[in-house]
Amino acid sequence: MKIYIFADMEGCSGISNGEFIGGGRPRFAELGCKFMADDINACVAGCFDAGATEVIVRDGHSSGLNFSAADIDPRAQVIQGDTPGIRFADIDGSAGLILLGYHAMAGTAGALLDHTYASRRIQNLWLNGRKVGEIGLDAAIAAEHNVRVLLVTGDDKACQEAVSWIPGVLACQVKKSYGTQSSRLLSPELAHQMIRERTVEAIKRRARVRKIKVDYPATLRWEYLERMPIPADERYNMLDARSFERTGDSLENLLLR
Questions:
Q1: Of 22, 98, 95, 97, which Cα lies nearest the Cα of 63?
Q2: What are phi and psi of 105, to 5 degrees?
Q3: Quick check: 251 pLDDT over 90?
Q4: In the list 59, 93, 149, 176, which could disulfide-bond 64, CB 3.0-4.6 Å?
Q5: Cα 199 versus chain centre, distance
Q6: What is the DSSP code string of 236-254?
Q7: CA-closest candidate to residue 114, choices 177, 23, 63, 174
Q8: For residue 173, how many C-alpha atoms fall within 13 Å in the half-sphere facing its CB?
Q9: What is the pLDDT of residues 53-78, one digit of tens each?
Q10: Do residues 157 and 114 make contact, with C-beta atoms less than 8 angstroms apart?
Q11: pLDDT digits (tens, 9 = 90+) for 117-131
Q12: In degrees rounded to 5, what are phi and psi of residue 211?
């Protein structure tokens, strides 16, 4: 049984504000990378507890270079660095997907470090007319590979978003957020225990989860932040000075290519 863990950082336990994800204070940024690796290791342990025979960890935050592979459980394989045009490198329909350390979509009230892919560029995204964030879009891209999302970990707002998008998914709340830069954290020990236990539970109940259903051809609409340059590309339908859309048969292609 193969499990694929795609790990972001903002929703990891221990991350309470932007200083931990590169806010300019090296000590906190270093701790953020450690918190990410610790959550990954708790999840990997849960995967093998549940009977996984292969675990692939994708370092999915920013550049994809946030920790040393030497810090990760040696039973897991690690993918790091950019994979142009491919969201989940080496994934296939035999795998179950875990979205670890995820955050809520841009504009979510009270959510920690809410954004959708590019916080300095994208104001909002819509999938077929419904506002969507990374949780919904990544689950939809996974479905294009015949892969189900079994578990999502993050703050309370990310967990609520996951349940609203993915039928039957299990969510693991590792903190409660009060705003973009504030959270109430569990102890590391309790958070890691929860992640490990919820991972086991999610894998054992994987048959209850359904893939996201998307009507194709699908339309993805972007709204950029004010005065951001918009694509001068015939593939995009320009709607106004900040908004444009694309329609196609693959969300992965629409988003990344």
A1: 22
A2: -70, 160
A3: yes
A4: 59
A5: 16
A6: SEE-SSSEEEEEES-HHHH
A7: 177
A8: 17
A9: 999 999 999 989 999 999 999 999 99
A10: yes
A11: 988 889 999 999 999
A12: -70, 150
Active site residue ranges: 115
Question: What single-letter DSSP state applies at residue 231?
Answer: P
pTM for this model (two decimals): 0.97
CA-based diameter of the chain, in Å?
52
Quick check: 118 and 106 in contact, CB under 8 A?
Answer: no
CB 90 within 8 A of CB 159: no
CA 247 to chain centroid, in Å, comes to 23
One-letter amino acid for residue 246 of the chain: R
Length of the chain: 257
Q: Which of 89, 72, 99 is nearest to 9 (CA)?
A: 99
Concatenating the DSSP letter of every residue in 152-176 gives EEEEHHHHHHHHHHSTT-EEEEEEE
Distances (CA, A) of 208 to 132, 168, 202, 213, 235: 23, 6, 9, 15, 38
Tell me the C-alpha distance between 11 and 73, whole Å.
Answer: 20
